[in-house]
From TrEMBL:
GO biological process: proteolysis
TM stretches of this protein: 129-157, 198-222
Pfam families for the chain: Zn_peptidase_2 (PF04298)
Protein name, entry field: Zn-dependent protease
Keyword Transmembrane: yes
Signal peptide, first to last residue: none
């Protein structure tokens, strides 16, 4: 009973805590102007140019924290606040997304692996619970097992995402320091934004692993 309570608490509390952490950090440093006066778009373009990457566009996108890199279209998309703004948070997010563009240009192995997993992961996310619940309802362990296999693909995607995101953040810090974008004491502040964002991926991976483990235990219980 205690283990069950701990499990439920982990599923509920960890993601909420991680999201709260990143939103708090982003909100704080989005109000702090960077010393270079560069917008997020200018930061992104500067790093891309410094690395000889000229085939990647930088575009604004609506929404908050909707920033991402699209490898299929070679576009770094920054939320409008980060694209046009000159905050410490904006330069951190912009440099992180360009970190993914650099990974793509250098054919970073984990990014390639994650991209290859994406179709199976999407299918797994959409089908796994349907198969697992159907297996439970009709008592068909084979169907339940297939659901676990589908879920495993989605969980593997989450796990592979971790080194991709951490590596992008490390590249971001290296780039904004080496290019002289960061000045004064901004390195510590920028790292706080990047570390907070990384927590969301860690939390998502942890929850995914816990869910998979629960269904695996249920499967063996059904078999016995």
């Amino acid at each position: 009973m205690i283990l069950w309570i701990v499990y439920i608490a982990a599923l509920l509390i960890i993601p909420i805590w991680a999201q709260s952490k990143v939103k708090k950090s982003y909100k704080k440093y989005s109000k702090v102007s960077n010393s270079s006066g560069m917008t997020g778009a200018e930061v992104a373009k500067r790093i891309l140019n410094e690395n000889g990457i000229y085939n990647v566009a930088v575009e604004p996108v609506k929404g908050q924290l909707s920033d991402h890199y699209d490898p299929s279209k070679k576009v770094v998309r920054l939320s409008e606040d980060n694209y046009y703004g000159t905050s410490v948070a904006g330069q951190a997010v912009a440099s992180h997304e360009v970190g993914h563009a650099i990974q793509d240009a250098e054919e970073y192995a984990f990014l390639r692996f994650r991209s290859s997993l994406a179709p199976a992961a999407n299918l797994g996310s959409n089908m796994s619970f349907f198969l697992i619940i159907a297996g439970l309802l009709i008592g068909m362990t084979e169907l339940f097992f297939v659901g676990i296999v589908f879920m495993s693909a989605a969980v593997l995607f989450q796990l592979v995402t971790l080194p991709v995101e951490f590596n992008a953040s490390n590249r971001a810090m290296t780039q904004i320091v080496s290019t002289g974008i960061i000045r004064n004491n901004e390195e510590k502040e920028t790292k706080k934004v990047l570390d907070a964002a990384a927590l969301t991926y860690v939390a998502a991976a942890l929850v995914a692993v816990l869910e998979l483990a629960r269904f695996i235990f249920m499967y063996f219980a059904m078999e016995n």
